[in-house]
From TrEMBL:
It is an enzyme of class 4 (lyase). CDD domains: ACT_CM-PDT, PBP2_PDT_1. The record marks T251 as: Essential for prephenate dehydratase activity. Gene3D superfamilies: 3.30.70.260, Periplasmic binding protein-like II. The keyword S-adenosyl-L-methionine does not apply. This is prephenate dehydratase. GO terms for molecular function: prephenate dehydratase activity. InterPro entries: ACT-like_dom_sf (IPR045865), ACT_dom (IPR002912), Chor_mutase/pphenate_deHydtase (IPR008242), Preph_deHydtase (IPR001086).
């Protein structure tokens, strides 16, 4: 028979354990200055949740274990050393959902109005961390993020993969929609559906999908491409769910910060470099990576403002900069590059 007292006792025990954990974290932070830090706590939560599947295989699935532990880690850290995390707002943008999935609800999440403002907030130290979209599986790189990564004043300290299912949201039915608002990347991820179902309707670019939902909530006839969470928050009807052209639509977000995470055992490293404008210079860099057995997971070139034919390059590969092959490659690269920066070594991201 249902015994509420027993459940309350179990819940009390869980809270007592969390309280013990929080006091331990507070004591560590007092003794050791900077350690432990929030991103390392998140990496540790991942590890513990994954390993617990072997020791406690039954019951709660791995994704739920990770999520519960992330919330506990962030709540403990927040109680000891409050920190804010900047994201492209307003609330219920995909960046917000990614930040919630990674940092949990215990962290104070701080909406800002552009990707550049996330970099500024972290660079100035107003926020300890920030979340920015970096690449989408349908639409490719996020130009604003790449542009700011070339400034090089913040590190990448983590990675988040978020499945993106876009929805057409409005106060009006499909037949009465005259404009569709959203961030250019979101409009592009749905361009096939929009061309088929709303041909000729004006597309209006906004700073984020949640900003589009705010606009749609103010004016009948405007629709937004945004998340289901945004539909609930801004009181919009879901005119059509899942309008992304590619069902496997995933956006990769970078966590920005100032620390350099310790190796977690499953890491990635991101490098930024420039080369001289002469034959074979990019091939020489690739040769160094090949010679050290580094298998690229991402490569991008980005034009250098005001310098025709000159580019920044960004590459990513598995491994941490403290691992011998990565250390050796980084040591060999200055000879082949004009400018080289390690943007970060960080735990490989999971879907949140
Ligand atoms: O506008 C948002 O909601 C965002 O968080 C930005 C962003 C992006 O620029 O890629 C993030 C995920 C989706 O790919 C669409 C939009």
């Amino acid at each position: 028979m249902h015994d509420p007292t027993h459940l309350s006792q179990l819940d009390q025990e869980i809270l007592d354990l969390i309280d013990r954990r929080q006091r331990w974290v507070a004591a560590q932070l007092r003794q050791q200055g900077d350690s432990p830090n929030l991103t390392e706590g998140m990496a540790e939560a991942e590890r513990v949740a994954t390993e617990s599947m072997a020791t406690i295989p039954a019951g709660i699935p791995a994704a739920a274990r990770r999520s519960i532990l992330r919330h506990i880690v962030s709540a403990c850290y927040q109680a000891s050393r409050p920190e804010r995390v900047a994201f492209l707002g307003p609330i219920d943008s995909y960046s917000h959902l990614a930040a919630l999935g990674y940092f949990g609800e215990g962290t104070e999440l701080s909406p800002v109005s552009s990707i550049g403002a996330v970099f500024d907030a972290v660079g100035r130290g107003d926020c300890g961390h920030g979340i920015v979209p970096i690449e989408n599986s349908t639409d490719g790189r996020i130009v604003d993020t790449l542009g700011r990564l070339t400034h090089g004043n913040v590190n990448i300290t983590g990675e988040i993969l978020l499945a993106i299912h876009h929805n057409l949201l409005s106060l009006s039915p499909l037949a009465e929609i005259t404009q569709v608002h959203s961030k250019p990347q979101a409009l592009s991820q749905c361009r096939g559906w929009l061309a088929d179902h709303l041909p000729g309707v004006q597309l209006v670019e906004t700073a984020s999908t949640a900003a589009a939902a705010e606009a749609a909530a103010q004016t009948p006839g405007i629709a937004a491409v945004a998340s289901l969470a945004a539909a609930r928050r801004y009181g919009l009807d879901v005119v059509q769910p899942s309008i992304e052209d590619n069902r496997d639509n995933i956006t990769r977000f970078a966590v920005l910060g100032s620390e350099q995470p310790e190796p977690s055992g499953d890491d990635k490293t991101t490098l930024l470099f420039e080369v001289q404008h002469r034959p074979g210079t990019v091939a020489d860099v690739m040769g160094v990576l090949r010679d050290h057995g580094l298998n690229l997971t991402w490569i991008e070139s980005f034009p250098k403002p005001g310098r025709p034919n000159e580019y920044f390059f960004i590459v990513e590969f598995p491994g941490h900069q403290s691992e011998p092959a990565v250390t050796a490659a980084i040591a060999a690269l200055p000879e082949q590059t004009q400018h080289l920066a390690v943007l970060g070594s960080y735990p490989r991201g999971r879907k949140v």
